[in-house]
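Reviewer 2 asked us to include a model.

Predict the structure of this chain.
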Amino acid sequence: MATEKVVVSNYSPEQTAQAVESYQAGQTVEAIALALGKSARSVVAKLSREGVYVAKTKAKGANRVTKAQLVAQIAAKTGASEEALESLEKATHEALELVAQAL
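Predicted model (C-alpha cells):
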C-alpha cells in the first residue's frame, strides 16, 4: 500500500506573485501581510522561500558609549573619583545617559 504525500500550500500562485511583486516594488512586509490576510512572519517566510526577502540589517553598537565611559563622564563632571562611582556601572545604560546629560 503506497501512501501519497499531499502538499498543501497556504499561498496560491497568485498570492505568491502578488507578494513578490509588492515586496520588490518597495512595500513593507506588514502592508503585504495585511493585503493578503496573512501574518508578517508568514509573508517573510514565503518571500524567503521565493529568494527575494532581504533581512533588515541590525544596528551596530559601534558608536554607543560604554557604561564605563558614562561613569567616567559623570565622575569628571561631579569631581568624584571613578572608583567611588564604580557601582554605577550596574545601572542601565539609559539611566547613566540621563544622569550624564543632566549634569
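Residues 13-49 form one domain. The mean pLDDT is 86. We have added this to the supplementary material.
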